[in-house]
Amino acid sequence: MADKSFTPNETVGIEDLQELDAGPRVSTRKNVPIIMLLQGENVGRKYLLQKREIIIGRAPEADIRLFDFEISRRHSSIVYENIQRPEEAPHCVVSDLNSKNGTLVNGVKVESQPLRDKDIVTVGSTVLGFYLKDEVEVKFDAELYSMATVDSLTGVHNKFYFQREFQRELKRAERGSNPLALVFCDLDHFKRVNDTYGHLAGDFILRKLGEILLSSMREYDICARYGGEEFAVALPGTSLEGALAVAERLRARVAERPFDYQGHAIPITISIGVAVLDGTMDSAEALLHAADKALYEAKSLGRNRVCVYSPSPEFGESL
After folding, report:
1. Which of 47, 121, 159, 163 could form a disulfide with 35 if both were Cys (CB 3.0 to 4.6 A apart)?
2. Which residue of the set 229, 241, 248, 297 is catalytic?
3. How confident is the model at residue 19 (pLDDT cuts 50, 70, 90)?
């Protein structure tokens, strides 16, 4: 799983990336192993171990991806050796993967070592804690986090979450001189849908659009319902060309077939505005304003289209 910003109560389940032999899953245990970030970026984030082996490092494919330049791309692994034997207490072993700066457990450099409850693992300048937690406590934390950050209708994140995470992605992009793109989407003539088919139909459309967005984005993209029928997607590490491809693909996917609601084939389209971080942007608000302006340009030019923000004085004259 690619790393993203979070709140201290967030617990991330690391999904199985490979087929395991038949047997009970970790969720049947009374105690489950948790990795918590104690020092470094994203302090407080908790990872629930749900597969036999996880990789810690800077590589995009790392299960716990850490943005710490003292960490190797594949720095360490943690093997959950008895994940298929829920009657036993969890037995996890951390191993160094020939990293440049080594892996420490409780301040001592190790090649491989079993982990005990409350052990401290240091990789680069990042400090991780290993804990055994009651499953009920883990689930309760996850439910509270979901209630606070996820839009209950569409299943994507809410505006509060997006604004906080987008600020962090912007700072990260500026530090590393990395590209960052922002996409604003808005349903066309949504009031007409509600007036014609009713608000339950409108809710159905919003829910389906949320599903399309979630299935179209990468794990580390940030997707949220920004307003009533407006959605925002932040695309870290994405150039203008890449963002345009994502936006056009999304626009076409929504428009390609009507949404079937209780026997009614409801035609739906979206308008999209795209903006990318460049020298003219000096804040998250500036980039948000640029994407919003591009969105309304798309609306004014006939809807069901993608427009890219331009800093030129002529841009937006049709608004």
Report:
1. 47
2. 229
3. very low
